[in-house]
């Protein structure tokens, strides 16, 4: 069984992971988020070249298995279950989301976000997720908030999502595990 760190096609991601983790932990601290009690569901990459997506896919197939491939917002998004989880701060994450390039151009091809499961009612989820933040944090002028409800073909569960971007790192929250959503 090959490990993520040993796969040539994933070398760029392996090399950049420590910096991403540092930025992520710094963002969580700056946002005053205490997520120790929550499940870090999956980690996601972003790329703007088809060749990069294909290379990463090939690498991820060597250290895990394809859980799902669905069209979401006009592009394929793949989910991979890793044979061995990645250690991301306090969390072990064994699921990687690989969106293929779409309309939006990203400034770099790298790690982009981590998503946590915040259990709650779908209809009031956005308010529940906002409740994780202090009023001071929500009033920070540089804070970027995005509410969405992404859906893939055949998905039965709603997937309300809150994305918060701080210092080039995005943290996302949703009420269900991505594995439950793509069943």
Description:
InterPro entries: DUF991_YecM-like, Glyas_Bleomycin-R_OHBP_Dase. It comes from Pragia fontium DSM 5563 = ATCC 49100. The chain is an alpha+beta fold. It has one domain: 2,3-Dihydroxybiphenyl 1,2-Dioxygenase, domain 1. Helices cover 26% and strands 36% of the residues. It is built from five helices and eight strands; from the N terminus they run αβαββββααβββα. Strands 2-3-4-1-5-8-7-6 form an eight-stranded mixed β-sheet. Strand 2 and strand 3 (75-88) form a beta hairpin. The two termini are 26 Å apart. The mean pLDDT is 94.
Brief sketch in words of this structure:
Helices cover 26% and strands 36% of the residues. With 183 residues, it is an alpha+beta fold.
Number of domains: 1
Question: Which structural class matches the secondary elements?
Answer: alpha+beta
Strand order of the largest sheet: 2-3-4-1-5-8-7-6
CATH class: Alpha Beta
Q: How many strands appear in the DSSP assignment?
A: 8
What is the level-2 CATH architecture name? Roll
Instruction: Report the total helices.
Output: 5
The H/E string reads HEHEEEEHHEEEH
pLDDT < 50 stretches: none
Main beta-sheet annotation: 8 strands, mixed
Pfam families: YecM
GO cellular component, one term: cytosol
InterPro entries: DUF991_YecM-like, Glyas_Bleomycin-R_OHBP_Dase
Protein name: VOC family protein
């Amino acid at each position: 069984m090959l490990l993520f760190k040993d796969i040539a096609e994933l070398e760029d991601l392996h090399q950049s992971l420590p910096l991403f983790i540092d930025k992520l932990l710094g963002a969580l601290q700056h946002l005053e988020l205490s997520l120790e009690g929550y499940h870090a569901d999956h980690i996601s990459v972003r790329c703007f070249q088809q060749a990069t997506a294909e290379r990463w896919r090939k690498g991820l197939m060597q250290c895990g298995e394809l859980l799902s491939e669905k069209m979401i917002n006009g592009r394929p998004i793949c989910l991979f279950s890793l044979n061995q989880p990645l250690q991301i701060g306090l969390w072990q994450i064994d699921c990687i989301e690989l969106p293929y390039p779409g309309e939006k151009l990203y400034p770099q091809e790298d790690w982009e976000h981590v998503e946590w499961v915040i259990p709650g009612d779908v209809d009031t989820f956005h308010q529940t997720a906002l409740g994780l933040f202090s009023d001071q944090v929500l009033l920070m002028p540089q804070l970027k908030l995005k509410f969405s409800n992404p859906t893939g073909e055949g998905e039965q569960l709603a997937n309300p999502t809150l994305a918060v971007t701080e210092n080039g790192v995005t943290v996302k929250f949703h009420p269900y595990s991505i594995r439950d959503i793509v069943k």
